[in-house]
Amino acid sequence: MYFSMIFEAQIAHNTPEDERRVMNECVEQAVLADSLGFDRVWAVEHHSLVNYAHMSAPEIFLSFIAARTSDIRLGHGVVCVPFKYNHPVRVAERVAMLDILSGGRMDLGVGRGATPRELGVFGVTAEETQAQLVESLAMIPRIWTEKEFRHTSELIAVPPREIVPKPLQKPHPPLFMACTKEATLNLAGRLGVGALALGFAGPDDIAEKNRVYRKAVRERDPAAVVGLEANDHLSALCPAIVLDDAEKARYLGFRGQRFFVESLNYWSRGGPPPDPDAYDRELADSRATLAQTRMELEMQFGSELVTVSDGTARRDAEQSAGLHLTQVDQGYGDVEDCIAYVQRLFDAGADEIMFLLQMGTVPHDAIMESIENIGNHVIPRFRADTTSPASRTQA
C-alpha cells in the first residue's frame, strides 16, 4: 500500500505575494510528508491556467524537494510529452539527472497535455497528442538504457547519439500515465505502465477503473511493454482534508473542491472566474452550494476532452471520465472518516492513494494538520511495518 500527495500549486488570489507564499508552502508540505512516512509526492505540469495550476515547471519543484528530503519518492507526473511541450530526449535527461541526485527516487508519469488553452501556448493540436505520447513512452526507456540511441519514425527522428546521464535506478525509473477513461486505462495496461486514476468519482469508479486496467494487463502482449519491465500499479486520487474538527474539515474540503470546479470551468468554458471571497459571504451551506451548481463544462481533464452537465442527458459522459466534480463524498472529516474512505479505495483495487490536499482555498495550517493526521494515524492503520520509507520497495 502506497500513500502520496499530488500538487498543482492552486492559488486563490493571483498576486506575486500569494504565488511565492503558496510555492513555499507546497515545499513545506512535501518536507513534512517525507518526515511522516509518505511514499511519494507528485507534481503536475500545467501552463497558463491562472489560479487552477501554477505548477508550470515541476522539474524545478521536485529538484528543490529532493534537496530537502531523504526518503520520499519524486513523482514527475504528469509530464506533457507532445514534442513541442517536452522533447523525449529532454524528458529522459532531466529525469535521469534528478534520479542520480536524489539517490534513485524518481518516477515518471506522462500525459497528453490538458486544456486547449495550454495546447495553444505550444502550437500543439489535440489530434497529434495521442500518437506523440505513445512514441515518447516507447523512446524514453530506450534512451535510459541504450548506450547509443537512435530513432526514426514518421513523427520524430533522433540521429545516433550517446545520451547522458543514465538514471541510477535499474533497469530504469518506473513509468506511469494519466488515465481517466477506459481507452487510456486500456492503453496503460497494454503498454505496461502504471495508471494514475484522476477524478473525483470515488471508490465505485475506482473499482471499475481497476477492472478495466487489470483486464488489459492480463491480456497484453508482452512485446508491447514499453519499458524493460512492466509497472502494473493503479494510483487513485483522494481529495482529503483531515482535521480533529470533522465539520471544519468537511467545510474546507467542499470549499476547496468548489474552487477547483470553478477555476477549471473558467479556463475550459469561459465561465465566471472563481470568487473565493464570495464563498464566506454566501449563507448557503458549502455542500449544497457545490451540489446545486448548474454548469455545463467542456474541459480537458487528465488530457481527455469531456463534456458534462447537471442534466441527465450527459451524466454518462461525466461518469465515464470519472469526474463527478460536484460529488462531495471524499476523504473529508476526521481521522476515522479518512480511514474509512481510504479503505474503500483499497477495497476497490487501488495500489496507491494520491491525497489531493492543496486545493486553492484550503489554508496552509489545515493542510499541515491533515498531513500530520494522515502520517500519524491513517498510514499506520494500513501498514503493519511502519519503518522508514527508505526500507520499502518502489512501485
**Quaternary structure of the protein:** single chain
CATH topology call: TIM Barrel
Secondary structure category: alpha/beta
**Number of helix segments?**
13
What is the tally of beta strands?
Answer: 13
Elements, N to C (H/E): EHEHEHEHHEEEHEHEHHHEEHEHEH
- How big a fraction of the residues is strand? 15-25%
Rounded to an integer in angstroms, the radius of gyration calculated over CA atoms is 20 Å
Q: What's the story with the biggest beta sheet?
A: 8 strands, parallel, barrel
CATH homology superfamily = Luciferase-like domain
Averaged pLDDT: 87
In short:
By secondary structure, this protein is α/β, with parallel strands linked by helices. Helices cover 44% and strands 17% of the residues. The chain has one domain (2-245, 330-391): Luciferase-like domain (TIM Barrel, Alpha-Beta Barrel), CATH 3.20.20.30.
Please give a structural write-up.
With 395 residues, the chain is α/β, with parallel strands linked by helices. It has a single domain, classed as TIM Barrel (Alpha-Beta Barrel). It has an eight-stranded parallel barrel, surrounded by eight helices. Strands 5-6 form a two-stranded antiparallel sheet. Strand 10 and strand 11 form a beta hairpin. Helix 3 crosses helix 5 and helix 12 packs across helix 13. The longest helix has 24 residues. It is globular, with a radius of gyration of 20 Å. The C terminus is likely disordered.
List the topology elements.
Layout: E1 2-7, H1 16-35, E2 40-43, H2 58-68, E3 73-80, H3 88-101, E4 106-111, H4 116-122, H5 126-145, E5 149-152, E6 157-161, E7 175-179, H6 182-191, E8 194-197, H7 203-219, E9 234-242, H8 246-269, H9 276-279, H10 286-291, E10 297-301, E11 304-308, H11 315-321, E12 331-333, H12 335-347, E13 352-356, H13 364-382
Parallel strand pairs: 1-2, 1-13, 2-3, 3-4, 4-7, 7-8, 8-9, 9-12, 9-13
Antiparallel strand pairs: 5-6, 10-11
